[in-house]
Structures are given as C-alpha cells and as structure tokens.
Design brief:
Helix content: 25-40%
Oligomer: single chain
CATH topology: Trna Endonuclease, Chain: A, domain 1
CATH class: Alpha Beta
Largest sheet: 5 strands, mixed
Radius of gyration: 16 Å
Number of helices: 2
Strand content: 25-35%
Number of domains: 1
Order of helices and strands: HEEEHEE
Strand order of the largest sheet: 1-2-3-4-5
CATH architecture: 3-Layer(aba) Sandwich
C-alpha cells in the first residue's frame, strides 16, 4: 500500500512540475511578445527561485508565473499569498544586490495561466505591479 501511495505522489509531483515548466515557457513567450526582454528564467538561490527576471523598458521586472488546469479554486494568480510575496521580495532584493542594480526601478508582475489539457487551449493574464 505504501509503495502505491509513494508512486502516486511521485507521479503527481512530476505532472505538477511539468505543468509549471510549460506555464513558464508560455509566460516567457507571451512576455517577449509584449516587449519584455527576458534576462533570466528560474533564477535560483539557496532561499528560493524567481520564475522570470525581465526588463520592460527601463524597469527590472520580477515575474511570478502561476499555472493551473482549472479555476475551480480561483484564478492562478490568486494563489500568491502574503508569505509568497515576502519571499519574492527577499529574492528580488538579493538579485538586485548580487547584480549591483541599486538605482534600477523594479516591480513585480504576475502571469496567470489557465490550461485546458483536453483541447490544448489556454488563457494568459498579465498583472503589472501586482504587489
């Protein structure tokens, strides 16, 4: 029984990870079409990860991507809570410090993606200055 549960959990995480990676790729392409310059994807530190770092004009933009297969529990972008915002703020501060970008205007954008895996359709929403 335990091995079946473990197997199901591993498969669930793989599907979830694949949906997330697909969403980030879709978001990257969408942002490029909106005129953003993608600087980094999946910028990792020991305290966490920033999905996308980009430039929009002169602004340095930290982008959180949320991808869901259903809006049954709300829109994808509504999944960003206060704890996640604090973590993203810490990560952005660390990025700015490491890259010596102290005088740069910065903001947080969110891309919410709903994917219907049955027919391949998707909706993409960009929220600028999300928090």
């Amino acid at each position: 029984m335990m091995s079946l549960l473990k197997h199901l959990m591993i498969n669930w995480w793989r599907v979830k990870d694949n949906i997330g990676k697909t969403g980030e790729a879709l978001a990257s392409g969408y942002l490029k079409r909106q005129g953003y310059e993608i600087l980094e994807r999946n910028y990792k530190t020991k305290i966490g990860e920033i999905d996308i770092v980009a430039r929009d004009g002169k602004a340095l933009v930290f982008v959180e991507v949320k991808t869901r297969q259903s809006d049954l529990y709300g829109l994808p972008e509504e999944a960003i809570n206060a704890k996640k915002m604090r973590k993203l703020t810490q990560l952005a501060e660390l990025y700015i410090k490491r890259k010596h970008l102290y005088q740069t205007e910065a903001r947080f954008d969110v891309v919410g993606i709903l994917m219907d895996c049955g027919n391949g359709s998707k909706s993409i929403r960009l929220t600028k200055n999300a928090f």
